Amino acid sequence: MSFFAQELIQKSDVSDILDQVLHGKRLALNDCIRLLRSDNPYALGIIGNILREKLFGKVATFVSNIILNYTNVCITYCKFCAFYRAPGDSEGYRLSVDDVVKRVATARDQFGISQVLMQGGHNPDLRIEYYEEAFKTIKEKCPDVAIHGLSASEIDTISKVERSNTREVLSRLKEAGLDTLPGAGAEILDDDVKSRISPLKIKSDEWLNIMKQAHELGIKSSATMMYGTGEDYEQRGRHLVKIAELQEKTGGFMSFIPWSFEPNNTKMQAEGVIKYPSGGLELLKMIAISRIVFSGLIDHLQSSWLTNGIGMAQLALTYGADDFGGTLIGEEVVSATGARSTELTSDKIITAIKQIGFLAHERNNFYETIRVH
């Protein structure tokens, strides 16, 4: 560490916490809140980068991936979402199983994908057999493509449609071919926030319980945080601590992905609640804090290019992120906000990684390197 970096850390308002982290101490809630309130993101970034480099050196990973949004019909009407359409809406859609499989097979043949991220709305007309048939057929036609699919809130919806329980749903979907679970649906794991931005969606404890069940069934998952919806620092801190506490029990989270809320075309923007996204400096701060809080618990941290752009994702790699996320072809949820193009090929990701002096490794959905570029 350079003299300038040491001096910057020593003068930081959280220097005691940063020193403790470098010595392997696990952080408490008050520590997390202090980090979030800190006005020195650069000191946080120095520590975040040190912790990342200890684990991964100058390697940054990405996955060749498509996001497949199989339906936009949804009955939870989240105020932060520009993608959903109510049942009966003329713009509502649901892909057939044949269409789902064709999209995966085409992406494999044309782009060499190794993973499909399959997510959609909470559609009450879809029975579990739809998902089972889709997963089984994908595995038959494309056995080399992993299925990273369905948020905890989608699992909850399926269980209600089936009048079953979430553990049984997870078990059946795993049997059908589900490999890993994405972390969507968490937003902020605080029920005061949830009641304001997504009152009809699962509560915090339900999200955590579904993740716990998945881990117990041998289904690894990601964890996420969507920040910038008007939550305070204590609520963000509680979110981080809840993820850390579950990880200590199950070890089932492979990665953590903090991403900023994009308000364009959403009800929250229309109501004047949130007018603008949080911005790049807040992303870098959240990346660094996530690396610090989850040090020794969750190794992989995504740089969130989708809502912040490629340039900010490059910077995020120097603040503690080690993974660029995935290539995207056909994504519809974030693109519904009109914020930016959400198409990104592997060549562009490899170039972006190499531009800042990192080595580009292509990974599978378990964060194992399958190709060095």
Break the fold down into its secondary structure elements and pairings.
Blueprint: H1 3-10, H2 15-22, H3 29-37, H4 41-56, E1 59-63, E2 65-69, H5 97-111, E3 115-119, H6 128-141, E4 146-149, H7 152-162, H8 166-176, H9 191-197, H10 204-216, E5 221-227, H11 233-250, E6 253-260, H12 267-270, H13 280-293, E7 300-301, H14 305-308, H15 310-317, E8 323-326, H16 346-355, E9 359-363, E10 369-372
Parallel strand pairs: 1-8, 1-9, 2-3, 3-4, 5-6, 6-7
Antiparallel strand pairs: 9-10
Helix pairs in contact: 3-11, 4-13, 5-6, 6-8, 7-8, 7-10, 10-11
Describe the structure.
The chain has 373 residues and is of the alpha/beta class. The protein has a domain at 27-64 and 164-372: TIM Barrel, CATH 3.20.20. Helix content is 46%, strand content 13%. The chain contains 16 helices and ten strands. Strands 8-1-9-10 form a four-stranded mixed beta sheet, with helices on one face. The longest helix is centred in the middle third of the chain and has 18 residues, at 233-250. The relative contact order is 0.15. The model is unreliable at 331-341 (pLDDT under 50).
Short description:
By secondary structure, the protein is an alpha/beta fold. The protein is built from 16 helices and ten strands. It has a domain at 27-64 and 164-372: Alpha-Beta Barrel (TIM Barrel), CATH 3.20.20.70.
CATH superfamily of the domain at 27-64 and 164-372: Aldolase class I
Radius of gyration: 20 Å
Distance between the termini: 29 Å
* Helix/strand class: alpha/beta
- Indicate the percent of residues in helices: 40-55%
CATH architecture of the domain at 27-64 and 164-372, by name, is: Alpha-Beta Barrel
Low-pLDDT stretches: 331-341
3D shape: globular
Largest sheet, in brief, is:
4 strands, mixed
CATH topology of the domain at 27-64 and 164-372: TIM Barrel
CATH class of the domain at 27-64 and 164-372: Alpha Beta
Q: How many strand elements?
A: 10
Assess the beta-strand content as a share of residues. 5-15%
**Tally of helical segments:** 16
Oligomeric assembly = single chain
